[in-house]
Amino acid sequence: xxxxxxxxxxxxxxxxxxxxxxxxxxxxxxxxxxxxxxxxxxxxxxxxxxxxxxxxxxxxxxxxxxxxxxxxxxxxxxxxxxxxxxxxxxxxxxxxxxxxxxxxxxxxxxxxxxxxxxxxxxxxxxxxxxxxxxxxxxxxxxxxxxxxxxxxxxxxxxxxxxxxxxxxxxxxxxxxxxxxxxxxxxxxxxxxxxxxxxxxxxxxxxxxxxxxxxxxxxxxxxxxxxxxxxxxxxxxxxxxxxxxxxxxxxxxxxxxxxx
Length: 259
Known about the structure:
Layout: E1 13-17, H1 22-33, E2 38-42, H2 46-57, E3 63-67, H3 73-86, E4 90-95, H4 111-139, E5 142-146, H5 159-179, E6 185-191, H6 198-205, H7 210-218, H8 228-239, E7 249-253
Parallel strand pairs: 1-2, 1-4, 2-3, 4-5, 5-6, 6-7
Helix pairs in contact: 1-2, 1-8, 3-4, 4-5
């Protein structure tokens, strides 16, 4: 099934990491609704992955979901190779994977914790891009990394998440500068507080109590939280031909939090 706007995001398959997360799943649905075949990764949520794959196929596209540890470069390269063999061309890559990161002061973060966060965020993104770059050069493709609005306006206790994601954003700019000669674009989207996705896990886990939520909401000019659909819309735009002259940029979707 193709929508009237599907041409705006070009042709070819879409590769999405973190597909079973709140944001990742909505991104998968949005691309599938536009008529794109979707290959997505997940870490351990087998049932959720199977349900998502069935849902995407119900939209009339080919879909596959595979368990993958993106911090393993060899496994990542094998998965990318398998996807590229299955689909004629991969033109869009969306990196939406990331481990659950607790909110904690950096003084309470151990070197091991920080190293694990770097592995799960920064190294994972680099491993993915390193493996898929030849295909993206061939198809003049586009990469969108889902990071965080916290690298624009830092909230206390979010350094364990924002630090590694800031490194991802630096890699986005570096790849954009170097790969533009091949027609490959790189951009990032920075989610603010959402009612689903990682923010939802922070709320459910008690890392953010009711008082903290109210303070956070008052710091947002729109006085509300966003949702995964807001992020998916931004990702679709940056991946689309409508954003064909945009590269190396970050779009915060945060209700104005960073102003």
